[in-house]
């Protein structure tokens, strides 16, 4: 009987240890999932900021392109009268 009681006690202890291991692993997985969720949210926020910055850069690029085109057009207008003066004079 004594051996049987001891064996039952040992098996019960092993079972409790396994249950504790499983509980620890589940908690670890839960913590990792929370960490991943936080990182995913941070990435989404960063991505949104990058998209906004990309839109700003695109707007600035278009504005600079229009300004450059206007400067080229203004330069051509200034050159045209001076060419006419050279040819006519």
UniProtKB/TrEMBL annotation:
Disordered as annotated region, ranges: 1-89
Compositional bias ranges of the Basic and acidic residues kind: 7-56, 64-89
Protein name: Uncharacterized protein
Organism: Phytophthora fragariae
Lineage of the organism: Eukaryota, Sar, Stramenopiles, Oomycota, Peronosporomycetes
